[in-house]
Every structure is written in structure tokens, then in C-alpha cells.
Amino acid sequence: MAAPSLKRCKGIARNRREHTARPKHRPHLGTVGTLRPNGPPRIAVYIGRVCHSKSGRMYEVSLDDDRQPVVTSCTTWSDWTISWDELIDLAVAAGIDREGD
């Protein structure tokens, strides 16, 4: 079997680059939010409890004393927090500003 030509190799590389599994209309934001170390609770306003639809696990949603959103796992009692700017970026990336969808 003969080796593929340079032109064919460049075409294969271009196709792999252009046809990714990640949709181009939703930019990848990377890791957002931070896990806080377990310690004394800093909860200022309790909002409520939610159940994840796929796993069935329970989470508490609240605001901390700095008024930042906090999600707490009812299984591990670990806290995850996100800044308001990061939360708005997630909403924009999800298409909150697109009309007609």
C-alpha cells in the first residue's frame, strides 16, 4: 500500500479540525466556579433544595455572606460557588440572548 500524498494528509487534518464533536454555536467555557473547602457554613440566604433529574441527588441552593450563588451537595456537604459574572457568561453561552428559539 502506498503512503498517502501530502495533499491527502492535509485534507484529513482539515476535516478533523472542522468536524469536531463539540458544536461551534456553543463556545466551550472551561471550568467555571470554584469548590470551597469544607468549613463553617457561610450561608446568608437559603433559597431551596433541588433534585438532579438524572442522578436523583439533592442539592441546596443559597447565597453566601458575599451574596454569591452557592450550590451545596446534600451527599458530601461540599460547596461550589460561582461569581455573578461567570453565571451571566454561562447564560449568554447557552443562548439567552438569541431570539426566536
Topology:
Blueprint: H1 6-18, E1 34-36, E2 43-51, E3 58-64, E4 69-73, E5 79-81, H2 84-94
Antiparallel strand pairs: 1-5, 2-3, 3-4, 4-5
Task: Kindly describe this structure.
This protein has a domain at 31-94: Spermidine Synthase, Chain: A, domain 2 (Roll). The chain is built from two helices and five strands. It has helices spanning 6-18, 84-94; strands at 34-36, 43-51, 58-64, 69-73, 79-81. It has a five-stranded antiparallel sheet with strand order 1-5-4-3-2, with no helix packed on it. A hairpin with a 4-residue loop joins strand 3 and strand 4 (69-73). The longest helix has 13 residues, at 6-18. The chain is elongated.
- Give the DSSP E fraction (strand runs of 2 or more residues): 25-35%
Bin the helical content: 10-25%
CATH architecture descriptor of the domain at 31-94? Roll
What distance separates the N and C termini? 50 Å
Please state the overall shape, judged from the principal axes of the Cα atoms.
elongated
- Let me know the number of strands: 5
Q: Strand order within the widest sheet? A: 1-5-4-3-2
Rg, rounded, reads 21 Å
Helix/strand structural class: alpha+beta
Uncertain residue ranges: none
Please describe the biggest sheet, giving its number of strands, its sense, and whether it closes into a barrel. Answer: 5 strands, antiparallel
CATH topology annotation of the domain at 31-94: Spermidine Synthase, Chain: A, domain 2
CATH class categorisation of the domain at 31-94: Mainly Beta
| Mean of pLDDT | 81
Number of helices: 2
Question: What is the H-and-E element order?
Answer: HEEEEEH
